[in-house]
Design a protein that fits this description.
Blueprint: E1 2-5, H1 22-33, E2 37-38, E3 44-46, E4 51-57, H2 58-67, E5 74-77, E6 80-86, H3 89-99, E7 109-112, E8 117-119, E9 148-152, H4 178-197, H5 201-208
Parallel strand pairs: 1-7
Antiparallel strand pairs: 2-3, 3-8, 4-6, 4-7, 5-6, 5-9
Helix pairs in contact: 2-4, 3-4
Length: 209
């Protein structure tokens, strides 16, 4: 499936009740990174403002990360991986896939842009904030956002946006070019779909018999 989204992703977790420290998590993102947030059960990051998101199956995403050592921030939530890319990239995805000759091929590769949101992973490097009321303080205590975690976290105060993948051959800053990233992501998504469709050895033997 190829799509861009202007609505919340349907893959988020239950939002029925705010977890402990949710307000502190939101403040961390807003103060340290300048990223707008919404909600509290769990906290969510708004896409299409500071960044867009490429979303793909985690199995394809891990294969992608082995091929692409430098990306923007990367998070995983359940079976889905999310790669942060420059704001506006979601609108470019269909055209890029067509140009890379992936257009019309089912890939399970989607994009979230303006109007979308993702579950905010727990800030890994400095969580909980010292003295933050209502946040877990004991070492090893469960993170309130544990369903979503950073694999490659953003660096507070370092100016994340200039390092996000953008459409420009050669890339910008420490991140790769968006075209190359999308091409690698499409390849790994297609490979993952082929592997899922391959019959198991026992099924192959039964078919021959």
């Amino acid at each position: 499936m190829i799509s861009t989204a202007a609505a919340p992703s349907g893959r988020s977790q239950d939002r029925s009740a705010p977890g402990p420290g949710a307000s502190g998590c939101a403040r961390w993102y807003e103060r340290e990174l300048g990223w707008p947030t919404t909600g509290s059960g769990p906290v969510e990051l708004l896409t299409g403002v500071a960044f867009d998101v490429l979303e793909l199956p985690a199995v394809a995403g891990f294969a992608l990360l082995r091929r692409v050592p430098r990306t923007g921030p990367v998070a995983v939530e359940g079976p889905w991986m999310r790669l942060l890319v420059a704001a506006g990239s979601a609108d470019e995805l269909p055209g890029l896939l067509d140009w890379l000759e992936w257009g019309g091929i089912p890939l399970d590769l989607t994009a979230l842009g303006a109007g979308g949101r993702i579950t905010a992973p727990c800030p890994s490097a400095s969580w909980p904030p010292p003295g933050e009321p209502g946040t877990p303080q004991a070492p090893g205590e469960r993170c309130p956002q544990e369903a979503a975690v950073w694999l490659r976290p953003p660096e507070p105060g370092g100016g994340v946006e200039p390092t996000l993948p953008v459409t420009a051959f050669g890339g910008d800053g420490d991140a790769p070019d968006l075209v190359r990233l999308v091409g690698a992501a499409a390849t790994e998504c297609h490979r993952a779909r082929l592997l899922r469709a391959r019959p198991l050895p026992r099924q192959r033997r039964a078919g021959k018999g």
